[in-house]
Amino acid sequence: MNRRIALRHLALISGGLALIPSCDFSSDDILAAYDKLKVTASQKTLLGDISNTIIPAGEIKGALDLEVPDFILVMINDCFTTENQAMFTKGFAAFPDYVKTITGSKFEKLDTKKKEEIIQAGTKLEGGETEEGQTNKAISYFLNTTKRFTIQGYMASEYIQTEVIPYSLIPGEYNGAVLITDLQKPRING
Amino acid sequence: MANLNIRSKQERTYEAIVVGSGISGSWAAKELCDLGVKTLMIERGRNVEHIKDYPTTNMLPYEFPHRGQMPKEVKDANPVVSKCYAFNEDAAHFFVKDAEHPYVQEKPFDWIRGYQVGGKSLLWARQVQRWSDFDFEGPARDGFAVDWPIRYKDIASWYSHVEKFAGVSGNKDGLPQLPDGEFLPGYELNVVEKYFAEQLKKHYGNDRHMISSRCAHIHGNAEYYAQQGRAMCQNRNLCQRGCPFGGYFSSNSSTIPWALKTGNLTLRPDAIVHSVIYDEELGKATGVRIIDAHTKEVEEFYAPVLFINAAALNTNLILLNSTSNRFPNGLGNDNGLLGKYVAFHNYRARVSGEYEGLSEYATSGGRPTSGYFPRFRNVYKQETDFLRGYAAGFSGGRGARADNSGIGMELKESLLNPDQYGPWRVGSHMMGETLPKETNYVALDENLKDPYGMPQLKINIDYDDNDEKMTKDYIEQMTEMFEKAGFTNIQSSDSKQAPGLDIHEMGGVRMGKDPKTSLLNANHQLHAVPNVYVTDGASMTSTSTQNPSLTYMAFAARAAHHAVAESKK
């Protein structure tokens, strides 16, 4: 096992925090598991809050219950180009100030409805040539990426695919003309 | 390199040697073994045993750390193989990584390879359409390449032979350009595909057809295949992982275990064939020289009959590297044409669209195939400003999707209860015949070597004006057909992908009647070294439009029987 994989395992075992926790939040610890992203522990908490706003817990578990933030960061760390990682990281870093400017409060202090509104509005931010435009573009990119991977990580999780909508390795014989009215399944309460 | 022929020559002598364990090699070996010939099959890659060596076959989507996607580090290190549609987390272990076998791209060429027992038969798209005389007579009629030395009547019974054993599902469509075969029940076209087929009939009469594509899957009746240990296709569509049911034909599930059961097959994986040994006194080939993949030691194996089925370009590489005083430019290469007249299939263009009709229907379950558009251009006579034509794939689909636009409980409810149907989506991709030309060639690089000390292959293959015209025609014609069928939102694209990504490279050791202009005779023997047979893609004189694997199977079976008949003379 190479050092990077060892570190990642350690990070996963210890809940993503590979370094010794510090109480001094001014020197927020960088999580070693996502070495290309330089994500801090408090940022990961924020990402958890955002993903859990996108898909909250109810009778059926939510994004945070299924460790979706880990999935999001693994995907961006392992599969994204450097440019897209930089765009994500920039938007991620700018998001708290964006929230503060609009609401006068920190994201985690907002009620659910406000959180939802700010995320939805943020995904639709338009970019531009100015510095503000560039920042808005990054925030929009960060939120859209987070939403996309929240949905993917949630739906393609072991919990959903075994307990909620079991994945079938053997889908059955093809029916190329099935009436949609015959396909209605009992609704699952989200 | 140490030459360690430790074992006695007798221990290293067989009655036949087959180089390559993919679709064509395994068919040659299976036939030889069935006929009682003690056969050595040599494979450069590792052994892959049916079921046992399919590590991902029953993995669930969430068990893949990136849900199938390849990490960027891997993509960056493998720019060539990463372009292949099937190079994903579930099947990456069956593909050759770029650094494992470097080659020289004099022009862009994406060489997609599978080095393991079974070769690319684990990864193929399993489409098996017969050729007809419209294909075999193509070069002679249209004046390109050379005339094929065989016709449909020479190969028809061998198509039947391999179809029956491999398991081919399809319908008897009665089309002269796509002869019917020995079919298991065909897969059903869905309602929008049937609608399109009817529309074609309405607008083009009997000129254009869209049928259920014949595929190498066991469907409808599996009884005969139990003796191979194979069962019905389960519609999983996870074929590239290796199928634990043996639902589709692969060397690993079918021909190789069958040949092993005869007791006549010896399998030697991890052995890179360096060259064919030619004995100048005897005037024939006597064996092959291999490099052990692990120890890099050289060893020789001997047999009176050799099949070189290493996959099209690697067969060229081996023969080019088999030099002697008699053949200084490669085995059997008296005319200097070895490695030349390579061609492929043009898979560049796609057309997609939507259909608002039939909105009460959707599909359920799975199937391993879809629609197939046999060639309709220039079939009976030359009628366009380009030679030959194209086949096309066609499929339509419709399933429930979730509305992802919301957030919170509303989004969650939508994701867990997808009910957005939208219109039917329809799509097509072209499979164009390309013309073999002397200027499309492979050769050995004079300086660069691979990690085993073998010369690297220089690849110089490109599209030409005929391909450009054909691509344009496909887009125009398919767009017109989509319009006539009432499809909307029609979009077309030309990927301009490099040759190679079609994974249908062919030629270089072409068949022909005349030793001055071809390498192989009508029985797949090298004109100049008749105890050497080539029945893989390298032997192709022209490419037609059909997926070629079925034809390689039939060639291999036919040639194996020929070799045995010759040995008894």
Entry summary:
Chain A is an all-alpha fold and 190 residues long. In chain A, 56% of the residues lie in helices and 3% in strands. The longest helix of chain A has 25 residues, at 131-155.
How are the elements arranged and paired?
The complex is a heterodimer of chains A (190) and B (569).
Chain A: H1 3-13, H2 41-54, H3 68-79, H4 82-103, H5 112-123, H6 131-155, H7 158-164, E1 175-179, H8 180-183
Helix pairs in contact in A: 2-6, 3-6, 4-6, 5-6
Chain B: E1 16-19, H1 23-34, E2 39-42, H2 72-77, E3 104-105, H3 133-136, H4 138-142, H5 152-166, H6 191-204, E4 211-212, H7 255-261, E5 265-268, E6 271-279, E7 284-292, E8 298-302, E9 306-308, H8 312-320, E10 340-343, E11 345-346, E12 349-355, E13 361-364, E14 371-373, E15 390-397, H9 409-416, E16 424-433, E17 441-449, E18 455-460, H10 465-484, E19 488-494, E20 506-508, E21 532-533, H11 549-567
